[in-house]
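Translate sequence into structure tokens.
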Amino acid sequence: MPLYKLPRGTLDILPAEQVYWEYVKHKAIALCQLYGYQRLDTPAFEDFNLFARSMGEGTDIVDKEMYTLEDKSGKKMSLRPEGTAPICRAYLEHGLYNLPQPVRLYYFATVFRYERPQAGRYRQHYQFGFEAIGDADPALDAEIISMTWHFCLSLGLKGLCLQLNSIGCKVCRPHYLENLKRHYSACLTQLCPDCKARLIRNPLRLLDCKKKSCQEAIETAPKSINYLCQECKAHFESIQRYLELLGIPFKVSHRLVRGLDYYTRTVFEIQSPGEGIQNALGGGGRYDELIEELGGKSTAAVGFAAGMERIILNLKRQNVSIPALPRPSIFIAYLGDEAKAEAIKLAFKLRQAGIAAITAMGGRSLKAQLRQANTFGTSYSVIIGEDEVKSQTVALRNMTTKEQKTIPSTKLEELFRRD
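Result follows.
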């Protein structure tokens, strides 16, 4: 037994799993390049106050889920619990507001939250997201949503549902929250303990509860879209019109609120078929007040984020066919010390020419070496023995057809470059 085990709520991404990760990353990068988004990477830890200010002290994420410590200078630092606030911090710190707006950015980030681990939810997980900062045009919301829809379809996922809502702004939301709290106060006895706490601390999250006892209260709750001010209403109507123009199907859902406090107006989520949190692939929305909250000028922004593990879980559930990763073309086997030296030299020469090659190691028999070649999935094996060393040739074996022929070793590079 090993002395140490994987920390709870984390995962090792083994070689056999990398094909899924590379597939999702490739699709994500291709999408962002198609829409003109540029990559921005931020540190894995930031000033605690960045997250406390952006997400709100008193929220579960800040109070219960963040990994926070004091560094040797006594400064309070936190591992990144989400990707948007660091992007906004970088936008301000590096003067990206001086560029033509909106600034379009994307990122891959390791995210840390102390949550109860379950399928598709880890204490350390990987997030892909994109943000458009610096413009309030509802067409930008539609662009972000279009990108999200395009991304999920490009992965080969089926049966997707786009949920859409507007939670208003600081002008109209307070009136909605008053009515929401009034509604829930009248059915307090049937609420779960978590929702009783949410009623005081974070009323919007009441609509997100999955407990059976709270479903009736959710279904009869007032809808945020009925309390929108004229500007928010016009904004939401424009987004729906643009999505219809693009042929992107959506469903307006009054239950959708998203989990972070900085959202304003637009919120959306992509869901795959199935029950539970695992079917939510990702989502986002508009956060027009966040940049100002972090010390900048009033700056409109909208974005999206998805957990990579959740996406991969759904790819497996739907049996989506994933292209195999490139494998080395050649496995070099040998018999004897002289042949081993030639094999090492040949492998080096092939790699210098950009041809991927693996050399056998140890003193295994030729039969065992060729079995190893099969496990690597190489298309060809090159066999070098005493006769090949003397004649400066190699035996080239097709691992699929088992055909074998002898060729000059100097021709090998030319042959595989042509192929």
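Note: The chain has two domains: 15-172+228-317, 330-418.
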